[in-house]
Specification:
Length: about 190
């Protein structure tokens, strides 16, 4: 339980601890994706390739886990906080770890008949709420800011995450349309 719910003081945060939490979170998310895709019909599973999906999710979680602390540090230091990259890395990796445990428990309980999805969703909801609370608390403590500044900084981080996702999905959609022939490659010339 210490790994999930420990709040560190600024001087106790180190890269090794943060990276271990991030790697464990990424692996749990990958395993969860593999478990959840096994419940899908064979037609969908053959398209998704659970192993490739799991590896992709692990790599995406690691990339996001190392990139988001940069954004968090930039936002919090711009707002007047005092902290380094390792503080953002610890806050993000701790948040990802607790959320990934909730998602992992949900993916396992989804196989329990009748009540598995409900109980799993309740447990995942509680752990995700705890993860966000820890993100606020760790950011406030590690960047030495007040709660209002922390709320603004984390809100900016979450907004930036949604914008990044929106841009990524939008660009993939446009690329797919172009490849399918839905968007002309050149503008028609007027004669």
């Amino acid at each position: 339980m210490g790994l999930l719910f420990s709040l560190k003081r600024k001087r106790e945060v180190d890269y090794n601890n943060a990276i271990v939490r991030l790697v464990v979170a990424a692996i749990l998310l990958g395993i969860s994706a593999m478990i959840m895709t096994q419940a899908l019909p064979a037609m969908v599973t053959s398209v998704l390739q659970p192993t490739y999906l799991s590896v992709g999710i692990i790599l995406l979680a690691l990339a996001g886990g190392f990139f988001l602390p940069v954004v968090l540090q930039l936002v919090m230091t711009t707002l007047g906080g005092k902290g380094r990259y390792v503080h953002g890395l610890f806050a993000i990796s701790q948040t990802m770890l607790v959320m990934s445990v909730g998602i992992f428990i949900f993916s396992i309980l989804a196989y329990v008949p009748v009540v598995g999805n409900i109980v799993g969703a309740m447990i995942a909801t509680v752990l995700i709420a705890v993860a966000y609370a820890q993100l606020y608390s760790l950011t406030r403590n590690l960047y030495e800011t007040d709660m209002i500044t922390t709320f603004i900084g984390v809100s900016i981080l979450i907004t930036a995450m949604f914008m990044l996702g929106w841009l990524a999905v939008g660009s993939m959609g446009l690329t797919s349309l172009y490849q399918l022939g839905g968007i002309p490659s050149t503008l028609p010339l007027k004669g």
